[in-house]
Amino acid sequence: MKIIIHDCDESYDAGFKNISDEVIWANGRYAPCQGCFECWTKNPATCRMKDSLHEICRSIGQADDLIIITKNCYGGYDTPVKNILDRAIGMSTPMSSYRGGQMHHTLRYGKKGRLTIVVYGDINENEKKTWELMAERNRINYGYENKELMIIDSINELEGMDI
């Protein structure tokens, strides 16, 4: 299963639906994570908030390939995209294990294929370094075997890209 999370205009949805199984538009019409950790403990992989992200832990956790398209925000994810990723913390468990010689939360859904992060907008050299580090850390934490970080100047460059 291939999922695309994006903060582009809604007009991009149709094109993304042609190349993926599920498209999640980061439109900000959902509550941010409340930090209750019920998706970890009380109701595994299910958020207690009954909105469009109620089952986001399962969706993202079961994705073989995850593509995140986000505007650069000071070397990190744009706020609506970050809110989605925060709400998906239940795709792992509160238990820890060693992966790659480091301690990480145990994966609820096991290893997956490829994490692709496409970042657009004005990005300086320090932010590029931050993105490279964050992409690798997200790959490990989310359980992906491979990752690709693509930095583009404008959202218009998405047209015709092979993602």
Name some characteristics of this structure.
163 residues, 4 helices, Rossmann fold, two-stranded antiparallel ribbon, alpha/beta, 5-stranded parallel β-sheet, 25% helix, single chain
Draw up the topology in text:
Blueprint: E1 2-6, H1 13-19, E2 22-25, H2 56-61, E3 65-71, H3 79-87, E4 92-99, E5 102-107, E6 112-120, H4 125-142, E7 144-152
- Runs in which pLDDT lies below 50 for 5 or more consecutive residues are none
**CATH-defined fold name:** Rossmann fold
Helix content: 10-25%
**Could you state the CATH homologous superfamily?**
Flavodoxin domain
**Count of discrete structural domains:** 1
Q: Give the distance, in angstroms, between the N- and C-terminal Cα atoms.
A: 14 Å
Order of helices and strands: EHEHEHEEEHE
- The strand order across the widest sheet is 2-1-3-6-7
What would you note in describing this structure?
With 163 residues, the chain is α/β, with parallel strands linked by helices. Helix content is 25%, strand content 29%. The chain has a 5-stranded parallel sheet with strand order 2-1-3-6-7, with helices on both faces. A two-stranded antiparallel sheet has the order 4-5. Strand 6, helix 4 and strand 7 form a beta-alpha-beta unit. The longest helix has 18 residues, at 125-142. It is globular and about 45 Å long.
